[in-house]
Amino acid sequence: MGLIAGLFYAFACSIMPGLARSDDRVFVEVMQNINDVIQNPVFFLSFLGALLLTGISAWQLRGSPRVRAWVFAALAVYGLAFLLTVVVNIPLNDDLADAGNPATMADPASVREEFEDPWVAWNVVRAALCTLALGLLARALTLYGRPARQG
User: Which ranges does the record mark as transmembrane (predicted)?
Assistant: First the structure.
């Protein structure tokens, strides 16, 4: 969860602001390249693993409802971030890829305009959701093994 939260955070606070300073052709080309190379086993292991491992943790904690509730909350929050990625960010990435080669593109400014603002905004939401999910998991971890209060 921390890896994915950090990835989305890095895009939000450095990669996208840095690319915002680029001209339209460079912006489109770099984002196409990033979207191409990020599809690798390491990313998919982290992206899918956060969902899978949080779900497994919730199942394993079925005998500890006090801790399990925090893990279920993290699972729900990350599930929303996962869904946003699949429903919003990936289609935007696909549209950008379908726009073609930026070197021969007639109007890279319009391609960028359709992509940049919605992608950046939804990435900030994903970063916030993943960070919240990480915080919820951290809370579950602090409760795990701590005896429940009596009385």
Answer: 38-59, 71-92, 119-141
Torsion sign (Cα): 117, 118, 119, 122: positive
Assigned token pair, 78:
């990350």
pLDDT of residue 149: 65
121 vs 146: which has the higher pLDDT: 121
Degrees, nearest 5: CA angle 7-46-79: 85
C-alpha 127/C-alpha 88 separation (Å) is 14
Return all residues near 101 (Cβ < 8 A) that are at least 6 apart: none
| CA 138 – CA 32 distance, rounded (Å) | 35
What is the predicted pLDDT for the residue at 147?
72
Contacts for 116 with CB less than 8 Å, ≥ 6 apart: 16, 20, 27
Phi first, then psi: what are they for 103, rounded to 5°?
Answer: -70, -30
Identify the pLDDT of residue 145.
77
Using pLDDT thresholds of 50, 70 and 90, give the confidence band for residue 151. very low
Q: Which residue from 143, 146, 132, 36 is spatially nearest to 93, judged by alpha carbons?
A: 36
